[in-house]
Amino acid sequence: MDNTTDNTTDNTMDNTMDNTTTNNILEFYIICYNNSFCVEYQIKTIRFFCKDPHKIIILDSNCGKFKENSIDKGNICNKYNIEYLTLPDHLSLSNEINSSIILGTKLNYVYYEIILKRNPKYFAFIDQDFFMIKSFSVIEYLNKYGMYGDVNEIDNAKSNSFYKCNIIPEGGWMIHPWCSFYKLDFIKDYKMDWMPCNNFDTGGANWESFIKLKNLNKKDYWFRDNIIMYYPFANISNAGPPSYEKHYCLYNNKPFYGQVQINNSFLHLLNSHILTDPLHPKTAFCKGMLDGILLSSGYLFNKENGYETFDSPSDKLA
C-alpha cells in the first residue's frame, strides 16, 4: 500500500472518474447525516490525497429529516460534480435505537441495494468524519489481501496493546466500517452483515458471516501500531467520568469527547454530530487542522475550492 507524500498542486479531478466509468476504480460510499462540513471536506481531501482512480458517492442519510441540510449537501455535490444519492425514508429509525444499529441497517441497505447492483471492482465505507490527510493508494493492497481498514476486536478477546507483536490470535475481529476498503470479488459470495452483535460494534456480524468462514489472518490487516490518540483539549478538560476526566471537555455546559485520532492516512474526529455547529471548538480545531494539512501539501486556497480569500495576491504557500 502506497502512503507516499508526492502530492500535486493540481487539486481538480486528476484521479476522479466521470459518471460513466466503472472499471478498475475505487468507489467511496460515504453516509452523511445532517452534516455539510463533512461532505465538503470529504470531497476536498479524497480528491487531493487519493492516488487511485476513484469516484466519490455521497449518501444523504437524513431519510426525510433535516430537509434544508439535504438541499445544502446536494448543492455542495453539484458544485464539485459529485454523485449524490438519497437513502429512502423507511430507513429513518428512532433516536431511541442504538446508533450502531441505525448505521448497520443503512450500511446493509447500501451494500445490497446499491453496491451489488453497481458492481464496482473496489469500494470503501468510511465514516463522514474520517478524513484522508496524506497521499493514499490501496488498490495494490486490495488485489493481494482483498480488504484493508481498521481492525476492531470483539470486546471479550481484545489484544493487550495496539502493537502487532501483541496481537491475540484467538477471538472475533472485523474491519470497522468507519474505515474499510474491499475488493468486491473477495466478499460478494458471503452474506455480509454490518449490524452490531454481542460484544461487537457496527459491522461485528461480519465475523461470523465472513471473516471466520474465510479463515483470515488478523495480522495481515493490522495497522493499529500507527494510531495517534490526540487530546488537544486535555489541559482544560475535566468533565469525564473517574479515570477519564481529561478525555471530556465542557462547551455550553455540555460535555464532549475530546479525542481526535490520527489513524494511519486518516484523521478521525470522533462524534461527528459536533460538526453541525461551526463554532464548536472541536469543529473549529478539526477544520483548522484539515486546512493546514491541505495548504501545506499544495492545495490551492481559492474560491473554486471553497475558500474566501478576498482578493489575496496568492492562493498557495510560497
Across the major sheet, the strand order is 3-2-1-4-7-6
Low-confidence stretches: 4-14
- Structure class: alpha/beta
Q: Give the % helix.
A: 25-40%
Principal-axes geometry comes out as globular
Give me the count of strands.
Answer: 12
In CATH terms, what is the fold-level topology of the domain at 26-225?
Answer: Spore Coat Polysaccharide Biosynthesis Protein SpsA, Chain A
- CATH architecture identity of the domain at 26-225: Alpha-Beta Complex
Number of helices: 7
Please provide the ordered H/E string of secondary-structure elements.
EHEHEHEEHEEHHEEEEEH
Q: For this structure, what is the CATH class of the domain at 26-225?
A: Alpha Beta
Explain what this protein looks like in three dimensions.
This protein has 318 residues and is an alpha/beta fold. It has a domain at 26-225: Spore Coat Polysaccharide Biosynthesis Protein SpsA, Chain A (Alpha-Beta Complex), CATH 3.90.550.10. Helix content is 26%, strand content 20%. The strands form 3 sheets. It has a 6-stranded mixed beta sheet with strand order 3-2-1-4-7-6, sandwiched between helices. The chain has a 4-stranded antiparallel beta sheet with strand order 5-12-11-8. A hairpin with a 2-residue loop joins strand 9 (248-251) and strand 10 (254-257). Mean pLDDT is 92; it is low at 4-14.
